[in-house]
Structures
1.
Amino acid sequence: MRTYLVTGGAGFIGSNYIHYMFRKYDNEIRIINVDVLTYAGNLENLKDIENRENYTFVRADITDKEAIAKIFAENEIDRVVHFAAESHVDRSIKNPEVFVKTNVLGTAVMLNCAKAAWELPDGSFKEGKKFLHVSTDEVYGSLEDDGTYFYETTPYAPHSPYSASKASSDMLVKAYIDTYHFPANITNCSNNYGPYQFPEKLIPLIINNALHGKKLPVYGDGKNVRDWLYVDDHAKAIDMVQENGRLGETYNVGGHNEKQNIEIINIIIDTLLEMLPADDPRRALVSKDLITYVEDRKGHDRRYAIAPDKIKAEIGWEPETMFKEGIKKTIAWYFEHEDWMKNVTSGDYQKYYEDMYQNR
């Protein structure tokens, strides 16, 4: 049975990846999920699989060398999928140090522990071991509205503390690949959306605010463009890179769903009104009059757009979920999981797990 060590698996993309892997492989794999449970980590995301015999949760900080080394010492880890990161741009502007610690130092610890566990006396590595570092398109900087795209060869030009910290972590992985021939890949993805996304991010924020008649904040003129990727498509890409990617290579993972932020908000409002029953009282609260333009974010990149040509050509992956379908699936999930949203927005989930771990 192959054992996967997933970092940040209680977060949005990590938890969706774990669900995807169990749906695909069931009892053929074992997953060890390591998460420190910051505000963005929520074990409710994994409630339905927490009692599986082939799933283990370990609460640990990826910057804790002893804790991570212990996991490698006590388990024969075959694959590492490294999601764990501080990822919210606005938070990075307010507190860059936390992002440097988690995203750069944490990645260094993960690399060192995997290298120590997998390296053979002659400097080569055990057969079949792979480390996948999950990164972002934001490391490439900003594009003009001219139809150009980010490729794997695009020079890095990060503009926020968040993207700078992710660029630094990417460079660490590249250095281990070049220096030690470490068995790793990097994926750089576009904006994800789907179930379990923390409501500080644009799509769940707009869904939640609209349903409660709250203002819908839009940075600047609302014309910043992002490429949107449904999270299950991303999970599939990660699995395919782990299985079929050439070691040492970087693969861009994009959704072919470029949209302005203001377009996203209008689509969400229209879709909510389409999906809400006629007698649902929330219909009266959902309105485009709630759209409120606010001061633009510092260093706000204008446009991101990924060309996933390489991953399609080499591995056969391409996005399957167009935005119109994906946003309906996402809204339907939030309709069905109102308690999840209430617990997240109230902060109750954090108190519950804090109490649980303190009492152990």
Note: Confidence is low (pLDDT under 50) at residues 356-360.
2.
Amino acid sequence: MNKILETSRLYLREMTPQDAEVAYILNLDPDVIRYTGDDAFESVGEAKAFLENYSSYKTYGFGRWAVILKETDEYLGWCGLKYTLELDEFDIGYRLMKKFWGKGYATEAAKACLEVGFNQFNMESIVGRAMPENGASIRVLEKIGLSYLENRIENGIEEVIYIKHKL
């Protein structure tokens, strides 16, 4: 297992096709994907195919990483960095199983990912995106030090964009 980073309660590692079942379950919850613009995977097989073809680690050296609770080795969801070529920007993203909401895990994982982005990958700025009605996600972005930048429409969906620049 390739640990990318560790926090006091979590470790993050690359996602693999072996994560297909938990990735499928994560995206199956309508509350989890309500504010993402994503559709649920149709099957565990579709989730596995997605993970088999996920190329960000090879292309950029980073990506969305599995978030694992150290104490139990449980899969909580994912958190990590993504480069969007069309916008020439790096973003921080996170998605956790509902039973792990409200415990500070998203904030803990996202803060660690920002540090890796700035210090290991020399990113000059990192944005975070959320739908305006997703107050919980916006609070995470604010807690990790991002500031409001602008509202945008991406793929027909309104988003609020937050940003943090490397110090």
Note: Residues 145 and 164 are 7 Å apart (CA to CA).
